[in-house]
Amino acid sequence: MSRLARPPSEAEVQPWETEDDLADGDLGYGLGRRPGAVFQAQVSQLSTPSKRSDGKNFSPLPLPGKGEERRASFQSSRHKSLQDTCPKESGPSYYGRQSSSDSNSELSNAELKQRLHDTLEEVEILKTELEASQRQLEGKEEALKILQSMAIFGKATSHTQVVLQKTMEQKRSLEKEVNALQWEIEFDQNRFKSIEESWTQKYDRLNCENAVLQEALNMKTEEIKMLKSENALLNQQYLEALAMLEVKQQMVAQENICHDKSGFTEVSSLEVTILPGTQNYRKLVPT
């Protein structure tokens, strides 16, 4: 006995109904129905967005990623649910139409449950992807912070290198100045040393000359002392001899003494210039 199929209700057909059966390739079999067969859904009806009765387009929920596989699994599950929910027709055609209506309602419920299940799965997948994207975004933010810190560190390092280079240049210039000053100091020390040596030699030579002059002075002093003693002795003898002469002879002798005194005075003045500081040079001249 062939199975009788009842047209689906408005609630069942509304999500997937079309204005024209021929628009989706129906060649007289109806919306997936054949005479004496159960309701069969085509893949084109599931994948092609349909129009609502009010003229607005209606499309099922988008399934991002693996859409074709989900549609195939949905259609296979729908066929299985149809085969499971449609009992074999063993009674009159009235009971066959009633069982077809029940199976269509159960099919609609199973379809909605399957779609709800798929939607929940998609929501979970999207949640997982969102969490992964958030973690990836956080990782990128951390990497950006690290790159920014590295850039700041690089700028600080470049500034430090510039300062270090300037410091090294200043150090080189200071070393050159120190070397120049050290060379000048060594040159001045050598010059001062040569001057000191020359003055030391002059001092030693003057000391030697002074010692020679001091010795000559001592000899002259001794000689003068001897001459003084001789002069004193001669003066005493002269006075004694003058006392024994007469008056006329004393006058002649005094005149001779005056002439001798002038010559002796010249000699004594020369000796005084040779021996400065001699306080007793007047003793050489008889009074």
TrEMBL record:
- Membrane-spanning ranges: none
**Coiled-coil intervals in this record?**
109-237
Which InterPro entries does the entry link to?
Answer: CCDC125
Q: Which residue ranges are recorded for the region named Disordered?
A: 1-109
BP GO annotations: regulation of cell motility
Highest taxon of the lineage: Eukaryota
Chain intervals with Low complexity compositional bias: 99-109
* Keyword annotations of the record: Coiled coil
Q: Where is the composition biased (Polar residues)?
A: 41-50
Q: Which PANTHER family does the record match to this protein? A: COILED-COIL DOMAIN-CONTAINING PROTEIN 125 (PTHR28616)
Name of the protein in its database record? Coiled-coil domain containing 125
